[in-house]
Design a protein that fits this description.
This protein is an all-alpha fold. Helix content is about 90%, strand content about 0%. It contains seven helices and no strands. Helix 4 packs antiparallel against helix 5, helix 4 runs antiparallel to helix 7 and helix 6 packs antiparallel against helix 7. The model has no long low-confidence stretch (mean pLDDT about 85).
């Protein structure tokens, strides 16, 4: 509980920095989970460079882009009622997500050999539901962290898929 309060204080004092670092940390965690729990590499076989790549992608691309998008979206559609959440989800999934994924998946592919086609169907099922709940239930400052927590599972899958031999 003390850790959560410290996180909230840091988020209130430095929202942008904390959101970007949260995104990077959770993407790195997704890779660690992939390597240790899914691939069972063990500590000796852990590829630290791969984890650093995912962490850097989170801090340098995902965190800033999604954090900025959530701010813009909240200005475009203020409020958190059911209808507002639905509007945000539709704009997010219909307008932003294709553009974001059009950049993100090739970037991941460049960095690690991941095929965008491999993941498209799964993305279409997972993220609309996550975003609807996120826009309806979660205050703006916590949205990136919530999405990144869900993304830990997704990032574990992406990292595993990207690094299959």
């Amino acid at each position: 509980m003390a850790l959560w309060r410290a996180y909230q204080r840091a988020l209130a004092a430095h929202p942008w920095k904390v959101q970007v670092l949260t995104a990077g940390s959770l993407m790195g965690l997704g890779d660690v989970i992939s390597q240790q729990l899914v691939e069972r590499r063990g500590l000796q076989g852990h590829q630290a460079g791969r984890t650093l790549t995912m962490l850097s992608l989170g801090c340098g691309f995902v965190g800033p882009v999604l954090g900025g998008w959530y701010r813009v979206l909240d200005r475009l559609i203020p409020g958190s009622a059911k209808v507002d959440a639905l509007k945000k989800m539709l704009l997010d999934q219909g307008g932003f997500a294709p553009c974001f994924l059009g950049c993100f998946l090739p970037l991941v592919g460049i960095l690690s050999g991941l095929s965008a086609q491999d993941n498209w169907a799964k993305l279409q099922r997972l993220w609309p539901a996550v975003q609807l709940a996120n826009f309806y239930l979660v205050p703006l400052h916590y949205r990136l962290a919530v999405v990144q927590c869900v993304a830990v599972i997704w990032n574990s899958y992406l990292s595993w898929k990207a690094h299959q031999l």
